[in-house]
């Protein structure tokens, strides 16, 4: 089995590490700060700042990985919009420092649906990129940098969800579930479309692609395209509360204003990748219902 260094130590990085370990690989997280989530704290950790290439080289020397997964850079889309220069340095600059240190190792970068403008209902890998915002631009620049090494995959994912109570910025499912489960109202966009993907599915695809021969871009989106209002009302129903606690707000008036109106992905390539057989992403309504049941049992 292989050794993998993960650049990142947050919610998604922790789940990727756990998946790799369950498959028999050795996974080590790395970041500027120690992991905060339970999934991440349970794994090994090394200090890395992608703006300081010497820390990347030191982590590679200590972890001795066969391959690298990177989820580096600030993921707060609103912050990136307000700080474009700093966002580019963190994402593209960090990718450049990593690419220079890889020494031929295989790499997988987890990227975003924000590389598209949102005019089409859903985008496949062949769709021309046209970033909707700063976050999309800096992610695309980081993709190009790592793909230029010739031994890398950029896995673009739709809105990732799951229980994330310990995160600094809990994902949409967690936020809605906590509020609606307590009988509190929520106002979310009724004109913003997503194809949400469960964090476990992202981790499974990451592990499979990392240990395949696939290079280039691969898309992962969930099988259901829906608005955040539809999703939140399903969550409300799961808690047995009035779905009318969820009100529809224009996307332009919310924290999602700078995101593409259609933030949905599908894949033209997945069926041809043998390692992804049997790893079809779960439907968001089915997964949300199961997460609600798990959450209530753990209270």
From TrEMBL:
Q: Which InterPro entries match?
A: NAD(P)-bd_dom_sf, RmlD-like-bd
The record places domain RmlD-like substrate binding at 3-272
Pfam families in UniProt: RmlD_sub_bind
Domain of life (superkingdom): Bacteria
Mind telling me what this protein is named? Answer: dTDP-4-dehydrorhamnose reductase
What species is given as this protein's source? Allokutzneria albata (Kibdelosporangium albatum)
């Amino acid at each position: 089995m292989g050794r993998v260094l993960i650049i990142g130590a947050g919610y998604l990085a922790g789940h990727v590490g756990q998946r790799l370990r369950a498959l028999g690989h050795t996974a080590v997280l790395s970041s500027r700060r120690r992991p905060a989530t339970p999934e991440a704290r349970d794994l090994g950790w090394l200090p890395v700042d992608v703006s300081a290439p010497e820390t990347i080289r030191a982590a590679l020397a200590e972890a001795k990985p066969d391959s690298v997964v990177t989820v580096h850079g600030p993921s707060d889309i609103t912050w990136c919009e307000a700080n474009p220069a700093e966002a580019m340095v963190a994402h593209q600059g960090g990718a450049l420092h990593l690419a220079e240190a890889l020494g031929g190792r295989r790499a997988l970068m987890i990227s975003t649906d924000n590389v598209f403008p949102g005019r089409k209902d859903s985008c496949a890998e062949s769709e021309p990129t046209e970033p909707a915002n700063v976050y999309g631009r800096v992610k695309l620049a980081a993709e190009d940098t790592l793909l230029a090494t010739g031994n890398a995959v950029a896995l673009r994912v739709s809105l990732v969800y799951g229980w994330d109570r310990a995160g600094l910025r809990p994902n949409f499912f967690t936020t809605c579930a906590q509020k609606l489960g307590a009988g509190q109202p929520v106002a979310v966009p009724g004109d913003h479309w997503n194809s949400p993907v469960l964090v476990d599915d992202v981790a499974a695809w990451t592990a499979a692609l990392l240990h395949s021969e696939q290079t280039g871009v691969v898309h992962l989106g969930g099988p259901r395209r829906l608005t955040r209002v539809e999703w939140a009302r399903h969550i409300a129903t799961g808690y047995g509360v009035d779905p009318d606690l969820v009100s529809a707000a224009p996307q332009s008036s919310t924290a999602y204003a700078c995101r593409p109106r259609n933030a949905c992905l599908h894949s033209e390539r997945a069926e041809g990748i043998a390692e992804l057989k049997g790893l079809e992403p779960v439907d968001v309504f089915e997964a949300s219902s199961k997460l609600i049941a798990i959450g209530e049992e753990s209270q």
